[in-house]
Write a sequence for this structure.
């Protein structure tokens, strides 16, 4: 039997974070406290542990539960932020999303929740540098087919990630470095880009 969409998304996201945990930690060693990979691996490990129960739920409920797991299991800033993203997205997502616009509206709720929780906005060298452009790419639905839309989302994530390099951080631990935060990729932007690519991989395979 093929995996449910929910199971495939969980597996791919967990694999992406696990495979890149060392890289995320190294990015955080440069401008933070060197725990982003550990935090994300712990959070997504908790999601993996609940994998079967989550996969049996509709996607909207699974997202909310996965978000709660991140909030409970991750001590760093990223846990509550990603937790808010998933919980708010899950709450806003219809049980059977029928259109890209419906999914985009739910993602918009999730991104708004991150901004509220983080008291942050784009331009501060955080995960929002990826999340906001990806959301905008979803909202700017030009009627293209799914492969073209997914390619736009991937490009938005990659460009957003790269845009963090010249930025000076004004939120989170990296802000303590002031100008010394310039010249490095933001770890949370990298993990967000990984999650966008993981999602796109799964959707592409299931076309
Ligand atoms: P901590 O900073 O507590 O050690 P992590 O290292 O796991 O937590 O996560 C750091 C990442 O969290 C940053 O790279 C950034 O992308 C994101 N982040 C931190 N603070 C904020 C905030 N206020 N708003 C949005 N994202 C934030
Ligand atoms: Mg850290």
């Amino acid at each position: 039997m093929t995996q449910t969409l929910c199971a495939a998304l969980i597996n791919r996201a967990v694999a992406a974070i696990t495979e890149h945990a060392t890289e995320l930690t190294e990015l955080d060693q440069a401008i933070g406290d060197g725990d982003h990979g550990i935090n994300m691996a712990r959070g997504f490990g908790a999601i993996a542990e609940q994998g079967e129960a989550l996969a049996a739920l509709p996607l909207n409920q699974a997202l909310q539960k996965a978000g709660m797991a991140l909030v409970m299991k991750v001590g760093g800033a990223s846990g509550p932020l990603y937790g808010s993203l998933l919980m708010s997205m899950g709450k806003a997502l219809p049980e059977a999303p029928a259109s890209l616009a419906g999914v985009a509206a739910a993602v918009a709720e999730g991104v708004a929740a991150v901004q509220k929780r983080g008291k942050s906005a784009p331009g501060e060298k955080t995960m929002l540098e990826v999340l906001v452009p990806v959301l905008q790419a979803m909202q700017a639905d030009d009627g293209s087919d799914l492969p073209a839309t997914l390619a736009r989302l991937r490009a938005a994530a990659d460009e957003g990630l790269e845009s963090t390099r010249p930025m000076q951080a004004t939120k989170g631990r990296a802000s303590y470095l002031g100008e010394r935060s310039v010249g490095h990729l933001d770890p949370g932007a990298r993990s967000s880009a990984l999650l966008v690519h993981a999602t796109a991989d799964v959707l592409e395979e299931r076309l």
Notes: The first helix runs from residue 5 to 19. Residues 3 and 137 are 28 Å apart (CA to CA). Residues 5-205 form a domain with the Serine Threonine Protein Phosphatase 5, Tetratricopeptide repeat fold (CATH 1.25.40.340).
